[in-house]
Design brief:
Number of strands: 11
Number of domains: 2
Structural class: alpha/beta
Shape: globular
Strand order of the largest sheet: 3-2-1-9-10-11
Order of helices and strands: EHEHEHHHHEEHEEEEEE
């Protein structure tokens, strides 16, 4: 029998939803369940700081948690490093601090609310703990577990894992979402929000839009068989 491995998609600062998801996992797999968090820990929701603290503390306590880095986590890091607010991958041209991208909510969770971008950057330098920056900066971009590959956004089909572009792992949609061929693994990802998590045969998209207030669905996999965890128990994910 394959040991179960759990996954939690894009949390986006929704600390209360994270607590509920962890409680469902503990009911299903116990307090020492293996969990992979699919990135996008921050932005949009009200308490990105609490999410980072919860996950980093859990790892420090020795919980078998793997936390991946998503594009929103990277944007937060880039802002802290350079003050930059524009990213070429954002086709709309929106600033990271725009409400729709959610950077302002992340900064507010650290007490930074200045409307001036330069002042906000300076305040963030003082308000965001170095430990949070260091932890985010060391998060991996993928996690391989048997027949499963966990990644935030997806992969470039046909490219060996060792040669995948980090930007693709955090940002890809075109070239991945429409691809129907087999990958070397079942790819479990978030990044592209759906109305409900879906198993597409060669991939599973778990992001149901928690950053916009929709449910955060934890899932469990035994081999390539998957289930969502509801309040009443497991709900089969079927291709």
């Amino acid at each position: 029998m394959t040991d179960p491995i759990y996954a939690i998609p894009d949390i986006h600062g929704q600390s209360a939803m994270l607590d509920h998801a962890l409680a469902r996992i503990e009911r299903d797999g116990g307090p020492d369940a293996r969990i992979v968090f699919l990135g996008d820990l921050v932005d949009r929701g009200p308490d990105s700081r609490a999410v980072i603290e919860r996950l980093s503390q859990g790892q420090a306590e020795g919980r078998p948690w793997t936390v991946l880095r998503g594009n929103h986590d990277q944007m937060f890091l880039d802002f802290l490093d350079t003050g930059g607010l524009q990213f070429r991958q954002i086709k709309s041209g929106l600033s990271w601090r725009d409400r729709r991208l959610g950077g302002a909510a992340t900064l507010a969770s650290y007490g930074v609310t200045d409307p001036d971008d330069t002042a906000a950057w300076q305040a963030a330098q003082a308000s965001v703990p170095q430990a949070h920056r260091d932890w985010l900066g060391t998060l991996p971009l993928w996690h391989e577990a048997g027949d499963l590959l966990f990644v935030h956004a997806g992969i470039r089909p046909g490219v060996p894992l060792s040669r995948q572009d980090p930007m693709d792992l955090m940002w890809i949609r075109e070239g991945f979402l429409e691809y129907q061929g087999a990958h070397p693994w079942l790819v479990v990802h978030g990044h592209t929000a759906l109305e409900f998590p879906q198993y597409f045969g060669n991939r599973v998209d778990l992001d149901a839009g928690a950053g916009h207030g929709h449910p955060l669905w934890p899932a469990v996999f035994e081999g390539t068989n998957g289930w969502l965890l509801s309040e009443k128990g497991r709900v089969a994910l079927c291709p």
